[in-house]
Amino acid sequence: MGLDSQVEMMNRTGWSKAKMSQLYNDKQDFNSAILQEASTALNCAPHELLMHPDDAMRSRRMVAGLQAAAETTLPFKPFPAETPALRDGTDG
Q1: What mean pLDDT is reported for the chain?
Q2: Which of 15, 36, 46, 85 has the fewest CB atoms inside 10 Å of its own CB, making it the most exposed?
Q3: Residue 15 CB coordination number (10 Å)
Q4: Looking at residue 69, what is its pLDDT?
Q5: Quick one: CA dihedral 22, 24, 28, 30, positive or negative?
Q6: How far is the first Cα of the chain from the last one, in angstroms, to the nearest whole number?
Q7: Whether residue 59 has pLDDT greater than 60
Q8: DSSP H helices in the chain
Q9: Residue 67 CA: distances (Å) to CA of 30, 32, 56, 63, 71
Q10: Which of 35-45 are b and which e, b meaning 16 or more Cβ less than 10 Å from the residue's Cβ?
Q11: CA geometry: angle at 70 spanning 68 and 71, to 5°?
Q12: pLDDT tens per residue across span 62-90
């Protein structure tokens, strides 16, 4: 991450220069709050920051494809309540 990227991340997250430097130089452990702040700034899910970028993008494409497929299928219509249960042969 270059200096411009660090400044942009500081602007997006509100992190101090010291905190950004510590994170960048691996002097600060990350925690759930840092992951949440970073994911909000980068418009991604927190778990994506823990993945290899190729895997995160592959996951995003898969989810987008599933959402698109779900939108193009007929809406799910459950059986009406008055539909009798199928007989399974266990009742006398």
Answers
A1: 86
A2: 85
A3: 20
A4: 85
A5: positive
A6: 72
A7: yes
A8: 3-13, 17-24, 32-42, 53-72
A9: 31, 27, 16, 6, 6
A10: bebbeebeeee
A11: 65
A12: 999 998 888 777 666 666 666 566 666 66
